[in-house]
């Protein structure tokens, strides 16, 4: 009867919530402390808390942007390494919150199993990525070829081992808490690992698909904060009382304009627009190609309604800039909902930030709550509107077939080209 009672308690708390609290030892908030460096504290001691927070956030934001430029300069391999490090840190922050909020200090194997499942899921996702993008290298090395061939079976066996370990770790007095934390771990894996995997996939499509979306989210975050700080009057959403409509709208227009300008600049450089590929001869990543139509200047007619306003009939721009409007619009209108979701999560467990990693900003997850949602959108957008059949991957798969299968495909393709008159015309030429 106690578990099925639905009468609402104080602050939306139900009877079942109270019961869970008693079992988990209460839900006191995770303590937070002032993590601002002492140098900044002394330098800004004469300012009010509002302006002090503004300067701390501003200085640390500039530092993070500088670090972002440095890792871009260092190339794709460093970017992928950073994405992996961010993924691990975000996973650690969320798991630690569950560990502290639910007071799960006595659970056997909880942290060990959490990190083991992280290893399993990463092996599953990145194993297939390695096979796709490092095909020749994988086929050249016997151990890698075996791991690639039986990748899914090995992944399932690893996960099944963790599942059995969890069942064996169940303790009579902690059944419910252990299943809570089992679910907590898997939801965290779904949010963090899956979406960081998509970020790396976007990177392989070309660094521009990695840099522009991330930069749009950063720009929207900064400009929404600036507009809200100086002009904000109207609350936007109860989950984040400091967010205002003025900041939301100002951030939107600023982000769309920023996306157009950044896309124009980056579309002229092959190092940003070409897919990231692995060169088997040099055993290194290469970014060199003939730019696709997306990154070649084209002339577009301006709608008649706007011609009298701007005074132009046509405009030359890259097709990617049109796609950048969709990316920046999502980053400014839908992306913030990733932040609102994180705010609701933190309110549910009475914590201010995910961690104290970055002074004035919170934890790494506080900075990447919108980025993960953005990465998923970009991956879906590329698959739906940009990516077509990849000839190089088809050839890779073709070369793994038996000689008789290759010959059958060759004869079928030859007959098809002859029927269409393509092969005959080539031979005549």
TrEMBL record:
Q: Does the keyword Ligase apply?
A: no
The source's superkingdom equals: Eukaryota
Tell me the GO BP annotations in alphabetical order. CDP-diacylglycerol biosynthetic process
What segments bear the compositional bias annotation Basic and acidic residues?
A: 1-22
Q: Give the UniProt family note.
A: Belongs to the CDS family.
E.C. no: 2.7.7.41
Question: What organism does the UniProt record list as the source?
Answer: Chaetops frenatus (Rufous rock-jumper)
Answer whether the UniProt record assigns the keyword Transmembrane helix to this protein.
yes
Which GO MF term does the entry hold, naming one?
Answer: phosphatidate cytidylyltransferase activity
Coiled-coil region list:
none
Originating gene: Cds2
The protein's name: Phosphatidate cytidylyltransferase
């Amino acid at each position: 009867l106690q578990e099925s009672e639905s009468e609402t308690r104080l602050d939306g708390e139900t009877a079942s919530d109270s019961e869970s609290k008693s079992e988990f030892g209460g839900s006191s908030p995770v303590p937070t402390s002032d993590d601002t460096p002492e140098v900044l504290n002394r330098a800004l001691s004469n300012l009010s808390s509002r302006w002090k927070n503004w300067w701390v956030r501003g200085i640390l934001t500039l530092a993070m942007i500088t670090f972002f430029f440095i890792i871009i300069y260092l190339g794709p391999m460093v970017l992928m390494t950073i994405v992996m490090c961010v993924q691990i840190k975000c996973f650690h922050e969320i798991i630690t919150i569950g560990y502290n909020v639910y007071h799960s200090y006595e659970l056997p194997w909880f942290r060990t199993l959490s990190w083991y499942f992280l290893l399993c899921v990463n092996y599953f996702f990145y194993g297939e990525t390695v096979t796709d993008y490092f095909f020749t290298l994988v086929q050249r090395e016997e151990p890698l070829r075996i791991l690639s061939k039986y990748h899914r079976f090995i992944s399932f066996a690893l996960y099944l081992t963790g599942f059995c370990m969890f069942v064996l770790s169940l303790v009579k007095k902690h059944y419910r808490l252990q299943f809570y934390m089992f679910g907590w771990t898997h939801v965290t894996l779904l949010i963090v690992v899956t979406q960081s995997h998509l970020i790396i996939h976007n990177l392989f499509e070309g660094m521009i698909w990695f840099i522009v979306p991330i930069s749009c989210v950063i720009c929207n975050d900064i400009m929404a904060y600036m507009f809200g700080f100086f002009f904000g009057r109207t609350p936007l959403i109860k989950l984040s009382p400091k967010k205002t409509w003025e900041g939301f709208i100002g951030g939107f227009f600023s982000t769309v304009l920023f996306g157009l300008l950044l896309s124009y600049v980056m579309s002229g450089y092959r190092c940003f627009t070409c897919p990231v590929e692995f060169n088997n001869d040099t055993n290194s990543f290469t970014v060199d190609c003939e730019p696709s139509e997306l990154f070649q200047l084209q002339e577009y007619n301006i709608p008649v309604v706007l011609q009298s306003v701007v005074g132009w009939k046509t405009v030359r721009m890259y097709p990617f800039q049109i796609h950048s409007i969709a990316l920046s619009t999502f980053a400014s209108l839908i992306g913030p909902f990733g932040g609102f979701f994180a705010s609701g999560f933190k309110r549910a467990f009475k914590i201010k930030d995910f961690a104290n990693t970055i002074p004035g900003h919170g934890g790494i997850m506080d900075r990447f709550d919108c980025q993960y949602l953005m990465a998923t959108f970009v991956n879906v957008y590329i698959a739906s509107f940009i990516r077509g059949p990849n000839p190089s991957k088809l050839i890779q798969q073709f070369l793994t077939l038996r000689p008789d299968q290759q010959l059958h495909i060759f004869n079928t393709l030859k007959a098809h080209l002859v029927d269409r008159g393509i092969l005959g015309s080539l031979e005549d030429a």
